[in-house]
Amino acid sequence: MQRNWRAAMPSANAYRMDKVLYEVHHLASHLERYRADPDDYMKDTPLPPALKAAIRDNDIGAMYLAGVNPYLLRAHCLGLRIPEPVFLQSLRAVAENDHG
Question: Closest Cα partner for 62 from 99, 20, 91?
Answer without folding.
Answer: 91
